[in-house]
Design a protein that fits this description.
Strand order of the largest sheet: 1-2
CATH architecture of the largest domain: Orthogonal Bundle
Distance between the termini: 52 Å
Strand content: 5-15%
Number of helices: 6
CATH topology of the largest domain: Helicase, Ruva Protein, domain 3
CATH class of the largest domain: Mainly Alpha
Radius of gyration: 23 Å
């Protein structure tokens, strides 16, 4: 393990030991160092499959997978889209020059039925773009450019 300037640690070969035992011996050191570590690790890969194929260490997988949380892609959580849209409109409509305040039910249906291959990040960026470019307080379906292959060119 290597120590960084802020008294944190970069985990290397000693990571499994530190996670399991709460302590490790520094390479070349003579003292055991105690650590209190909580790890939140994210990935877009199936780690069980990565372990089976030998691309991820099995011992590290078992040490990290104490409370696995699977978060499905946004396209499988359509009911979350209206809540996220409201959150992002509230976040990005604070400026004095931003007029957008809401979407029509029909416009919301378009967003709900879109696949969102970029997940929440794509939705957030899209709503931010609408807030910046819209001259209307309420978005209608015809205002939703840039989705389903519609180009932003000419905006």
């Amino acid at each position: 393990m290597r120590r960084n300037k802020r008294d944190g640690y970069w985990f290397a070969g000693k990571a499994p030991e530190a996670l399991q035992e709460g302590e490790f011996d520094r390479v070349g050191g003579s003292q055991t160092i105690s650590v209190d570590v909580r790890v939140i690790a994210t990935t877009n890969r199936d780690l069980e499959e990565e372990v089976k194929s030998g691309r991820f260490r099995q011992d590290l997988f078992f040490r990290l997978s104490i409370i696995p949380i699977e978060l499905p892609p946004l396209r499988n959580r359509k009911e979350d889209i209206p809540l996220l849209v409201r959150l992002f409109i509230d976040k990005y409509s604070k400026g004095p020059s931003v007029k957008l305040r809401q979407l029509s039910p029909e416009a919301m249906d378009v967003l709900i039925n879109y696949e969102w291959p970029g997940n929440i990040r794509e939705l957030e960026n899209y709503i931010q773009r609408l807030c910046l470019l819209s001259d209307n307080a309420k978005i209608l379906p015809d205002d939703l450019i840039g989705l389903k292959g519609i180009s932003w060119a000419g905006v």
